[in-house]
Amino acid sequence: MKEIDLLIVGQGIAGINLSYIAKKKGLTCMHIHQSSPGESTKVAAGLINPITGRRFVKSWNIDTILPFAIKHYKELEDEFNINFTDRLHILRTFQNVAEENAWLAKSADPFLKEFLLDRLAFDKSKFSNKLKTVDLMGELQNCHRIKLSTLQDSYLNKLKLDDELIDEWVKLDDLRFHENSITYKSLSFKNIVFAEGWRSIYNSLWSHIPFAPSKGELFLVSAPDLKLNAAFKNTMFITPLGKDLYWVGATYEWKNYDPFVGEKMKEKLFTMLNNTLLCPYEIKAHLSGIRPSSKDRRPIIGPHHKYPHVYIFNGMGTKGSSLSPYYAHVLIDFIQEGKGIPFEVSTKRYPPSS
Ligand SMILES: Cc1cc2nc3c(=O)[nH]c(=O)nc-3n(C[C@H](O)[C@H](O)[C@H](O)COP(=O)(O)OP(=O)(O)OC[C@H]3O[C@@H](n4cnc5c(N)ncnc54)[C@H](O)[C@@H]3O)c2cc1C
Prior knowledge:
Blueprint: E1 3-9, H1 13-24, E2 29-32, E3 47-48, E4 51-52, E5 57-58, H2 62-80, E6 85-93, H3 97-107, E7 137-146, H4 148-161, E8 165-166, E9 175-177, E10 182-184, E11 187-194, E12 214-222, E13 231-233, E14 237-242, E15 245-249, E16 253-254, H5 263-276, E17 282-291, E18 300-303, E19 310-314, H6 320-337
Parallel strand pairs: 1-2, 1-11, 2-8, 6-13, 11-19
Antiparallel strand pairs: 3-7, 4-5, 6-7, 9-10, 10-11, 12-15, 12-16, 12-17, 13-14, 14-15, 18-19
Helix pairs in contact: 1-6, 2-6
């Protein structure tokens, strides 16, 4: 039986980026993946927003992860000969003049200038009968959107063609863990990585890890009159998807692992839409997903404390598009060459209690 270097469980954006980087570095891979309710990659807007929070600071580690992600996705685009990245601006509303002043001060900061515009390029007057714009607004440039489900569809098709995909739901009982290998049915692997998204909460190998998944619901909305080509953020995002379609959301709910949509959040989304859009719109879909967040909002990557060839690649939370390419590379370097994993993202920060 020929041993394969890596078995990856789960092909959301985390598993996909891990697989691509592993193969690029010469590892042989097999993938087990089955679509399931609540999967995050299928419904995410895929935005990469480099400046966050009310204090307008750079997103965590953005200077390292953004250039890496851009290069990585460009490579994938070239390889698959499809476009799944967009560069776009993000418009955000301010709650008060103090916030606007803070923004203006930050826009002069040479380290932030790359992203923060000191004046609006967006022409508000063209939107006065379409969008409830406010006087106090700021604009970010050099933001990105990764069309995650387009990328996922292409990647899964390629794996299928290459005979590297098993479309099954793997349970722990189906796997055999040996000293230096793992077996699944008739296949033998040197290593296994679980990239199961929020469903890792049900995997007893990782029961000591404080996952903190958060459920999000959103609408896909058709609004032919809107003609907005930047993402607009007040309490939620309105993100253009092309062809007059917009991604609107999302809500946040913790400790709700029901992967399906509900009436409560539908109401919330309607309220937000009606408070924001002035032009006619039609709801095309109401979707939900569960973000694989961790308690400290950092990725969770690295080996299992008991089984050295068993790994996790998870905790991408709200930022799978930007975080997963770089940290996939960190994990593969660890598996292949024993290079270090920064403690702040490592499984080591969550030692089992006994
Ligand atoms: C509403 C919403 C909006 C978001 N917006 C953004 C955004 O704008 N920008 C951004 O960067 N991120 C965003 N995110 C977060 C982003 O979606 C996640 O960070 C990312 O998709 C996580 O990817 P993943 O591969 O870890 O998990 P998932 O996408 O959930 O993928 C895991 C996959 O593995 C499969 N699987 C799991 N266990 C098994 C098993 N045992 N056997 C077989 N298959 C299995 C699952 O069915 C699933 O398809 C958003 C998320 C939500 C919910």
